[in-house]
Design brief:
The protein is mostly helical. The chain contains four helices and two strands, in the order αβαβαα. α1 crosses α2 and α3 packs across α4.
Length: about 90
Amino acid sequence: MINCAHSVRDVAEALGPIQFVVAHSLGGLASLLAGWGGQPMPRPYPFRAYACVSLPNSFPELVRGFASSISLSGSAQARLEQMLEN
């Protein structure tokens, strides 16, 4: 997630100025993090507005659904969740 947020900010800085974000699911979370700019981001990107669709409201639930859809074992699912949280 953090790498995605850095990527969103890096692309916006390279192509910008970008004023508006349209994002789906984890892309919405990454965009909000890039615009917020708090830890662990080095600085915010000054987006003016966001249109975010279907953002997850429960990260563990999102991971469980994804893990189930690709038949991850319980230990692999736990590792994936830990990696994403870190």
